[in-house]
Amino acid sequence: MNNQPSRNLTNELAKERNRDAADRTLMAWIRTCLSLISFGFGIDNIVTALAKTRVGNGADVVFSARAIGACFIILGIVALAFATVEHQRLLKRIRQDDFFYTPGRSLTTAVAVALTIIGVFALFAVLVKTVSIKI
Fold first, then answer.
1. What's the pLDDT at 33?
2. What is the rounded CA–CA span in Å between residue 109 and residue 70?
3. pLDDT tens digits for 77-98?
4. How many CB atoms lie within 10 A of CB 82?
């Protein structure tokens, strides 16, 4: 006699589809985080080049732009770490035979909030720069 529990083909195929979906989601997070990191790195390189040619008009502008670039890099790194951890948790849940969907915290919402904060910071940096140029 076989002591292994019988497997339902429909359930096993559903698990495989869920695994594939989880992998696609992780790949999307990798692309998003790579874009955030690259964008932050690009901002820093542009600001460095402008500061070397003295096209920029002050250290506060360089600092603001570098801070915004660093925020993009940090957000990309942190989001990638959380996405990887969440992917591993999901794979562990899929391997269990008693998998039930329970909605969890949304990494997407957290990244959207962080990008909003960075955007507000960037807006204030531009407004301060604009006001200081007019004065």
1. 95
2. 20
3. 999 999 999 999 988 888 886 6
4. 16
CB atoms within 10 A of CB 61: 19
Is residue 107 within 8 Å of residue 81, measured between CB atoms?
no
Average of per-residue pLDDT across 61-70:
84
Query: How far is residue 19's CA from residue 33's CA, in Å, rounded to a whole number?
Result: 21
**What one-character-per-residue DSSP string does the chain give?**
---SPP--HHHHHHHHHHHHHHHHHHHHHHHHHHHHHHHHHHHHHHHHHHHHHT-S--HHHHHHHHHHHHHHHHHHHHHHHHHHHHHHHHHHHHHSTT--------HHHHHHHHHHHHHHHHHHHHHHHHHHHH-
**How many angstroms separate the CA atoms of 58 and 132, rounded?**
11
